[in-house]
Amino acid sequence: MVKELYQTVLRETSLNVTNGEIDSVRKKSITKSGCRVYDGGFLGVAGTLGEPTAESWTQAEANLARKIPCPWGPKTDARRTCRRGAAMDADRFLHLCEELTETLRREFPQFIFSNKINWTEEMQRLRNDAGLDFTWQDAAGLVKMYAMVNVSQYQIVATGGSVAECESNYRQMLARYNLIDPADTEPSASDQGEVTGVIADLRSAVMDGNTWYYLQLSDGTVYYTISAAEAPEAVILNVGDTVTVKYAEGEGSILQAYSVAKAVPAA
User: Which of 16, 56, 190, 255 could form a disulfide with 24 if both were Cys (CB 3.0 to 4.6 A apart)?
Assistant: First the structure.
């Protein structure tokens, strides 16, 4: 007899924003479990919300009496973990949203933002006592795009694949309508850091058709992330290249980059 467990885990963090302030945070986690028992070419199943109990497995074994044929049997001795999208926990998501709302309040006091912001992550796992362990985690396509709309002039709309890109596009729109000085289209120096170093690790992930690059410098512990659309030169970067990264100041292991460029060698 082989016992096999199939589970889906859905985690969601929902923030309610009123007048530019996060006034409530709601977190939920829903686990669904399917118990499968293979024996003598037959399959018995039982399902439950949450983690399976001894009763769940007893019910699955009892359902073998239904004689559901399963001549191919369970898969054995195989392990694999796949992930689409960058990992993010609830605390990191909350921190990023707090940074966003703080920037809006400071830089655009006339801008009123009230809405809900959600982050959802799903995991599917299939494992059995014959050596099978497959895990699939999906966090891609959950934040497709950010948008900023001027409440007094609704025709002023800016979008971006990241908070930094959206803010930059919004500043350019404001300058185009003569609402701010063109010199203010870039983030203020207090919000932007700059670092030069040698790339020690370089990774990439495809999310919603966009390739995002994550690079770590040899003298640091954080990763700087930027999309190929924002920095086409990132496509040809390699470990060992010396680069200059301009990024949004913040905490955590992953920081949003505004630009990444190869450093010019000293003469």
Answer: 16
> Which is it for the CA torsion 100, 102, 103, 108, positive or negative?
positive
Strands 78-84 and 132-138: parallel
Token pair in block for residue 135:
């895990």
User: What token pair was written down for 110?
Assistant: 């006339």
Tell me how far apart the alpha carbons of residues 174 and 182 are, in angstroms, rounded to a whole number: 9
**pTM attached to this predicted model:** 0.52
- The mean predicted confidence, pLDDT, of the chain is 83
Nearest to 239 by CA among 197, 179, 191: 197
- Side by side, which strands form the sheet with 78-84? 68-69, 42-49, 21-39, 2-18, 115-128, 132-138, 78-84
* Burial call 175-199: b when 16+ CB within 10 Å, e when fewer: eeeebbeeeebebeeebebebebeb
Q: Write the single-letter amino acid at 52.
A: P
Structure confidence at residue 188 as a pLDDT band (50, 70, 90): low
- CA–CA gap between residue 37 and residue 66 (Å, rounded): 12
CA-CA distance, 119 to 94, in Å (whole number)?
Answer: 10
Q: CA 16, CA 20: separation in Å to the nearest integer?
A: 10
Buried residues in 11-34 as b, exposed as e (16+ CB within 10 A): bbbebebeebebeeeeeeeeeebb
Q: What tokens were used for 167? A: 């803010």
pLDDT band with cut points at 50, 70 and 90 for residue 141: very low
d(CA 228, CA 120): 24
Task: Please name which of 256, 234, 235, 237 lies closest in space to residue 247, comparing C-alpha atoms.
Answer: 256
DSSP state of 184: G
Picking from 250, 194, 248, 235, the residue whose alpha carbon sits closest to that of residue 217 is: 194
Q: How far apart are CA 82 and CA 197, in angstroms?
A: 31
